[in-house]
Amino acid sequence: MRGHCAVQNCSGGKSDSQPLFRFPLESERCKQWLDKCQREDLNDKPADQLYKYERLCGKHFQPSAFVDSEGQSVVLKDDAVPTIFDSPATAQTSHGKRKEAGKVDEKDIKGRKKMKKPDTEPASNTPVSEEDENREYLKSLFEIVLLLGGNNIPPTDPEDEHENRQSNFQALLEYRIHSGDETLRKKWDENKEKFPEELKNLIEVCEQYIRGKLVEEVQQNGHFSLLTDELVIISGEMFLPFFVRFVDKSNCQRESFLGLVPFSGDEDVLAEKLLAEITEKWGLKMEQCKGQAHSCSGTHSSKIKKFAAKVTENSQQQYSV
Ligand SMILES: [Zn+2]
């Protein structure tokens, strides 16, 4: 996707911060946009390509082309057609077009030659598939999750709902929608309701992927130490944080966070549950575990001891056989 306007010599999206709008997917309207912006090099591109990669900036639309939303967002009406262009050759309202027809004859002929192809090409009538749209939508969502993660910003806060405010995730998402990401807007409108569930899934996928890579590296190294930290309480529930210490590919000792496991239930059941989580679900091989350290104090220390014993039992069992 281009981060600037498709009109030649237009500064929209470059030096001039303007909202950018995708070319319409619907081929007839896409052609209308294309006719206006005089980019012959784009004439033989199918609508779905233009939709994906080209943008027009807000300067080319009359105020009446926008959905009025009290300045909250910049959204084009479904039938909006750009009409405002600087250079005389492109300043064509339907009125002006007829008048200037003689002048632009030469250009028209050139244009027509090139236009012949897309007219017969079925591709220009094929709209972007649902699958492509979903893919692009998911890509945007993942980008937001990763951006937040990389900056240590929580995507949501349990307080958000109480105080009836937007989550960080939603705020970033709407920012992207307002800057002209039409697929995102459409998909967001369709999926808003399911959103909290969807976000949970997204984060889970990211978490699994990152942990998968880490466990893979630990396994290649051959052995590791298992560490746990003090219990943490999230939304009223207790979790045990797990870390792994190992020597990585560059021969450096590393300590990395593996994940949180719910910490509830009675001693024996809990010990089994914790072990199952880190071995079956996360893929750690206990025969590679050469040490462990836990820093739990107080009332829960007996549960941790039970778990530690279970780990020892499992790793010894594995090597003694
Ligand atoms: Zn522009």
From TrEMBL:
Keywords: DNA-binding, Metal-binding, Zinc, Zinc-finger. Residues 86-134 are annotated as: Disordered. Transmembrane segments: none annotated. It comes from the Eukaryota. Residues 99-109 have a biased composition (Basic and acidic residues). Residues 1-85 form the THAP-type domain. The keyword Oxidoreductase does not apply. This is THAP-type domain-containing protein. It holds the Pfam family THAP. GO terms for molecular function: DNA binding; zinc ion binding. InterPro entries: IFN-induced_PKR_regulator, THAP_Znf. The keyword DNA-binding applies.
